[in-house]
Amino acid sequence: MAIENFIKVLLRHKIALLIIPMIAVAATYYFLKDSPETYTSRARIATGIIDGSNALMNGKSVPEVQVNQEFGNIIQTMTLKKVLNQVSYQLALHDLSTEKPFRQTGNLLTHLSPGEKRQAIEILTNKYNKREELFLNNPQENKLSRLLASVEYDSESLLSDLLILRVTNSDFIDLTYAAEEPLLSAFVLNTLCKETIAYYTATVSDNNRKSVEFLDSLLQHKQAVLQEKTAYLRDYKVRNGILDVNGQASTLISQIADFETKKQDAQKNISSYRGALRNIDSRFNPNDRKFFESSVANLNQDILVTRGRLTTVNNDYIKSGFDPKYKARADSLQSVLSNQLNKVNDNYSYNPTSSKQELVAQKLNLEVSLELAKNSVSSLGSELSRLNSRLYSLVPYQAAIKRTQDEIDLATTEYTELSKKYEQARMDASFTVKLRQVEAATPGTPKPSKKMMLVVLSGIITFGFCIMVLFVLFFLDDSINDGNELANRTKQPVLGSLNRLKNDKINLTDIWNNTSETGELQYFKSLLSSLRFELDNNLNNKKVIAITSLDGDEGKTFFALNLAYAYTMINKKVLLIDGNFGQPEITETVKTNIYFEDYVLSDNTDKSLLNPESNLTIMGNKGSDLSLLELSSHQLIAEKIKTLRNLFDVILIETPSLNRLNKAKEWIMFADKVVPVFAAAKTIRNTSNGEIDYLGSLNGKLSGWVLNRFDGKKFAVKGRKVKTVKA
Questions:
Q1: What do you get for the CA distance between the two ends of the chain, in Å?
Q2: Which among 206, 264, 193, 223 has a CA at the least distance from the CA of 45?
Q3: What is the Cα–Cα distance from 356 to 698, expressed in whole angstroms?
Q4: Could you identify which of 210, 337, 613, 715 might form a hypothetical disulfide with 519, taking C-beta atoms 3.0 to 4.6 angstroms apart as the criterion?
Q5: Is the torsion defined by CA of 204, 205, 210, 215 positive or negative?
Q6: Same domain, 15 and 110
């Protein structure tokens, strides 16, 4: 249904849907008929970004992300205002210095005086050489800027006709430019390529140079720091007499371990020697020991001297770190001591009855060994103390040297990494991407004309735009235009519809006496007759019908008059009461002399209301803007209407609209049926929901809605204009 309604909207506006696109087509053709032909030239630049030889020489391949970034940078460089300005200056200098400028029609540059031309050439040449922009604060440069814009040589105009694209997955960039002159398009592209290559090469070279210089200065600084820390460590070792702390510490630790081992061995020997002596002493009785000691007293004195000398040499041997020369002296003294002991053994000094000579010799040897072992333990302990003291003295030197060595290692690492970056930067600077123009632009061929396509597109786009506007209006329009929409909105039945009569002046008598028969009026009468039939069947022998509306200007007066005439056509005696005291339009239209107020308040015979010449009686009101119950009591009014029921077959009452509060509802209390009228193309406001609910609560009194003034079939209206009746 919505699609059908939208199609109806399009059909209603079909003339606009035809005329507006035709106007657009005509306007497009008018503006394009004299437009010049367009010539397109093409140039190509090779970037060298993905050139395999460069990757082989610098030892690395370029990642795809970096490749895309490089191409993006180059393309953006081509569109820089600084680069496009160079092209603009070249175009202007060409037109100023030649008799055949690229653009002749409307070229204000060619209309300058010779002096102005010389000045302009001087300014543009200076700006071109310095790669500067025109300063708008300077009057002369501001004038030149406006002249360039007027000839469309400015950067914005050049950029609008320029297309720059990378050829898919290749090393090339294609440039195309469209202009009305073939030489102009080629000149722009070749100049743009030249200026881009010069600017990009200079920029990249300058950046590489700055990078190399910065890394070189930083590398020299790191080298100086490393040399300073190395010299400090060397001087520190010399100043403290340290060659190799770790080596010295390792030597001392090894010596301490050896001395500890020998000290433990000597202590073990002392224990074993003492045990052996106690064992030997236990075998001698006291008299034997006395005899023995007195016999060898002199020999023991010599042995003690030799022992002392042997102990001294043994201590020196230990302190010297077991120097071999002390070992020889110790062995010599040991030999002397052995000879002295042998003399003791050889001297038969014991009691002849005694047989313990061998034990005496063992005891003497054990005593000598015990004495040597004791002396060794003492010497070894002293030497261990000295070695530990030397080892502890190395600790603070080790910490200072370790800290300085760590600093040297860090500085060495930084220097090495920076040196690699420096070498890489130098190599990258040597193999910088070199832009080169591999295809020069030549004067282009004319592009296929798009005039007819643009003309057709203008019509299609305008037609589509009109349809879109109508659809938006249709979508936003919540007005009611047919009976189904009215029924859906009110949730109440609809009796029928009446079409709109386009004639401004319509005579009711001519309508129903067939004196002004047209297709439109015939359709109206047919719809009204159908509506009367539905209403008559709905009455069920009832007679009083109240005709009302939600708001004013719904056409209920016109409907009430025509419905009354329709009932007279089937020989019904009809009474039409104008119950709208505030706006008595029926009374003013028919100029009746019968008033409802007089009938209610008078005691005259009711049969005088009957009109013997016509089946239609119209009862007006005096326009006092009263409500019905303000006129008289409910009982009296009910009696008067009951009397009218006996006189007429149908009683039609036009009530005020429902938005007039109680005035319509008071009439509805005395009616058998209610017929609300709603004008098509209007919207039911939310404030009217209360009146709609009221109509639905009338317990069967509501016969149904009448949709008035709907846009029905189209008829050619024929006939003369007669007396006006407001519809």
A1: 29
A2: 193
A3: 158
A4: 715
A5: positive
A6: no
Answer whether residue 158 shows pLDDT above 60: yes
Report which secondary-structure segment, H or E, holds 565: helix 556-568
Residues 634 and 703 in one domain: yes
Give the helix, strand, coil percentages of the chain, each rounded to 5: 65, 10, 25
Return the H-helix or E-strand segment holding 662: helix 662-668
Does residue 498 contact residue 527 with C-beta atoms inside 8 Å?
A: yes
Burial class (CB in 10 A: 0-12, 13-18, 19+), 160: exposed
Mean pLDDT over all residues of the chain?
Answer: 79
Q: Under a CB-based contact definition with an 8 Å cutoff, are residues 245 and 398 in contact? A: yes
Q: Is the domain of 179 the same as that of 121?
A: yes
Specify whether 496 is located in the same domain as 465. no
Q: Which of 298-302, 449-453, 551-555, 687-691 has the lowest mean pLDDT?
A: 298-302
3-state secondary structure of 499: strand
Q: Can you tell me the distance from the alpha carbon of 145 to that of 88, in angstroms, rounded to the nearest whole number?
A: 10
Res 359 pLDDT > 80: no
Q: For residue 410, tell me if it sits in a domain.
A: no
> By three-state DSSP, how is residue 202 classified?
helix
Helix (H, G, I), strand (E, B) or coil at 438: strand
| 31 pLDDT more than 60 | yes
DSSP collapsed to 3 states, 386-432: HHHHHHHHCHHHHHHHHHHHHHHHHHHHHHHHHHHHHHHHHHHHHCC
**Residue 248, C-beta contacts closer than 8 angstroms, at least 6 positions apart:** 242, 394
**Highest-pLDDT range among 221-230, 275-284, 349-358, 431-440:** 221-230
Q: Is residue 347 part of a domain?
A: yes
Residue whose C-alpha is closest to residue 652's, from 555, 569, 538, 543:
543
CA–CA distance, 117 with 103 (Å, rounded to integer): 16
Stated as kind and residue range, the H or E segment containing 173 is strand 172-179
Task: Tell me the per-residue pLDDT of 57-102, one tens digit each, with 9 for 90 and over.
Answer: 455 566 778 888 888 888 898 899 889 999 998 988 888 888 788 8
User: Is the distance from CB of 376 to CB of 262 less than 8 angstroms?
Assistant: yes
Q: Is pTM beyond 0.70 here?
A: no
Distance CA 594, CA 617 (A): 9
Overall number of domains in the chain: 4
Cα–Cα distance for residue pair 508/23, rounded to 1 Å = 44
Residue 500 forms part of a structural domain: yes
Indicate whether 719 belongs to any domain.
Answer: no
Task: Say if residues 86 and 128 touch (Cβ distance below 8 Å).
Answer: yes
As a whole number of Å, the CA-based R_g of the chain is: 65
19 and 42 housed in the same domain = no
Tell me the CATH number at 645. Answer: 3.40.50.300
Tally of CB atoms within 10 A around 127: 20
Q: Are residue 324 and residue 308 in the same domain, yes or no?
A: yes
Q: Which helix (H) or strand (E) holds 600?
A: helix 596-601
Q: In this structure, are 559 and 696 located in the same domain?
A: yes
Torsion of CA 125, 129, 130, 134, to 10 degrees: 30
Side-chain-facing half-sphere of 681: CA atoms under 13 Å? 10
Closest CA to 711 of 10, 7, 8, 2: 8
Please check whether residues 685 and 700 belong to one and the same domain. Answer: yes
Given 367, 393, 419, which residue is the final one in a domain? 393
CA 179 – CA 41 distance, rounded (Å) = 9
